[in-house]
Amino acid sequence: MSERTYKKDIELINTWFKEDVSKETTRPAEMLSLLFSATEPLFEIHHNFLQQIEHILVIWEGKSALHSNRSIGDILKDIIQWLPLYERLIERLPFILERINASFRHNKDFERVCRDFEARKGCYLPYTSFILKPAFHITHYLQIIENLSKFYVNNSSEFAKYLFIIEQLKQFNDEYSVTLNSLINLVILIELQRDITGMDNIVQSGRRFVREGCLLKLSKKGYQQRLFFLFSDILIYASRSASVQFQFKVHGHLSLQQIMVEPTEPKLGVNFCFTIYAGERALMVAANSEEERRIWLRDLSETAVSLSRINGNETLPFIPTIISSNELLDKIDNALSQKWIQKSENVSQMENIDKLHYRSNTMAHVCWHRNCSISAADYEHALTSCLSGYLLRKFKNSSGWQKLWVVFTHFCLFFYKSCQDDFPLASLPVIGYTASMPSETDNMNKSYVFKLQFKTHVYFFRTESEYTFRQWIEVIRNSTINSDSSQHTMQ
């Protein structure tokens, strides 16, 4: 039940984060007061709401002789009364996030407190994502209620309640859609700033994130893997550094003014090549598929055209912090590779890495390891899609099923032993995976089973009902990027 996750996420901010930052005397008190005064009432209503939902479920399952005078529609109707509280939170968040980012970057003590909070086992996302997540609760409720209403079409009185709730929530979402999209973009920039080293001004007013992902860049030593970040005004490329913060070192950048791209023939045995021209510079890169090449060509071209149409506005002020050079890049790559191996073999270093487990699940790192890319629309989906509940999990070569509480958010499955646990046992980013139904060769003689596969990594998941199966397969299918739609068709 996703409501348990909503409550727990808010509790992380109201309790854990509040306790940690309260110990820091130089904390931005005004900003934190605005944050907690907006989230504390939400925790109370979600706590009470969860109790009512659980009570109804117990009655439905026949585990209680008690009765309820309220239908599920009556309980869901309470959400409408919460809208002013969510309105206050959403209106405050731009200021809160901007201030908290400034404090994180310029106040070392506050930065340390935030990193310590994120190092807790129960903190499975960056703190900025936890702060932002409640802003999308109404979007989540709208999706759930729309799906639930389909089961009450023949119940006129109950169906009317659902239609009324849906109408109210849609009006709310429409009113705040622009603000929510801006918040998504702001959090993306903030979190990318933490992932990138060698460039200090990723977060800028007016800058819009477009796409990030892996491409092979041609150098004197051949093709080398690079992580490219496309924004509305600039293209940045980087590679993984030896930093224990799991950051990416910027190697170079191109302004999108007067940029041109064109597909090119295979070179050095590598397919899906294209060239990026910017002034007197030219980068030859290669994608991992024809589809990825098409997407990059489209986004680069459209973003450059969009920038050129902004009359009277120059490119955002930018101070380069590193000069790109193929020879220099080769030396950096060799040095970093050796340093990374040495650090990975060091036990104390691995303890530090273990404390930063959440950083390895950021979108930048997943794109790097899975050799794929994601767009702003994908990020939006990641922030607006959340699902949790019990699933049965089975590995490809195992014989038994393991029942786990699973939380899906930010393109990642987090596995808990039960819904009462404070921290996950493991996690699985699904970007790059293919979601499908089991094939005959899988010998899966069970109902409501779906399959996740990335290369040789295969997982099977089973739900306990058709309704929950449809929920999971829909959210997974829309989030794996490489999903084969033909295999998802349900009869």
From TrEMBL:
Residue stretches making up the DH domain: 1-179
Pfam families on file: PH, RhoGEF
Domain annotation PH: ranges: 208-305, 384-481
GO MF terms held by the record: guanyl-nucleotide exchange factor activity
InterPro entries: DBL_dom_sf, DH_dom, PH-like_dom_sf, PH_domain, RAC1-GEF
Protein name: Uncharacterized protein
